[in-house]
Write a structure and sequence with these properties.
By secondary structure, the chain is an alpha/beta fold. It is built from 9 helices and 4 strands. The protein has a 4-stranded parallel sheet, sandwiched between helices. The longest helix is centred in the first third of the chain and has 17 residues, at 14-30. It is globular and about 50 Å long.
Length: 200
């Protein structure tokens, strides 16, 4: 059993990183694991995250960098309106399974802020009011604005970013309810659970 699994995380930005960390830690805690999470990329947006991952993977493959391979590789990159299943397939094709046998891929559809709002009861518990009904839109920054609006309507402070609520929202989240609302989140949770359970 690996009680302190090494997890390497590639994602787009701080909002993705905070959500992924909170999710991994919550799932690992139920398995009595204390993961060591190393963020390999957490800035620069969608394109840079994918480019950086491919370059890093090549460098590891060719021995250009001395790197201790993770027990679990986690990629969290927005689907950006192409659909989460297609976005996931594209990322799966980019991963070398011989190097990373355990991999969890998350593709929020269309953006990660939709996952923050996936469980309205958790949002009400942590922020103070439920979010508006999800209109199912695919517009740039729409869900980020919806999350910010919910926080402001609850008269909660936005200290620096809306993403400061990530760990509290993930801790309060009912994964079944959230996954029913957001199938892409359900798939990501199941992949992380399965990978960490294999390490047990």
């Amino acid at each position: 059993m690996i009680d302190r699994p090494r997890v390497d995380l590639f994602c787009e930005d701080r909002g993705h990183e905070q959500f992924a960390r909170a999710l991994i830690e919550r799932i690992a805690d139920k398995l009595d694991q204390k993961p060591s999470i190393r963020t390999r990329n957490g800035r620069g947006g969608h394109g840079k995250a994918i480019t950086e991952f491919k370059a890093w993977q090549r460098a590891v493959t060719n021995g250009y960098i001395d790197h201790e391979l993770p027990d679990l590789l986690v990629l969290l990159i927005d689907a950006n309106c192409i659909g989460w299943a297609q976005a996931r397939r594209e990322l799966e094709q980019a991963v070398e399974p011989g190097i990373f046998p355990r991999c969890a891929i998350g593709c929020p559809d269309p953006h990660v802020e939709r996952w923050y709002l996936a469980d309205p009861q958790a949002v009400q518990e942590i922020i103070g009011i439920p979010p508006p009904s999800d209109p199912g839109k695919c517009e740039r920054h729409f869900y980020k604005q919806l999350l910010r609006q919910t926080i402001q309507n609850a008269d909660q402070p936005i200290a620096s970013l809306e993403m400061a609520y990530a760990s509290d929202l993930v801790a309060a989240m009912d994964f079944f309810r959230a996954g029913k609302n957001q199938p892409s989140l359900k798939h990501f949770v199941e992949q992380i659970q399965s990978a960490l359970q294999q390490l047990c």
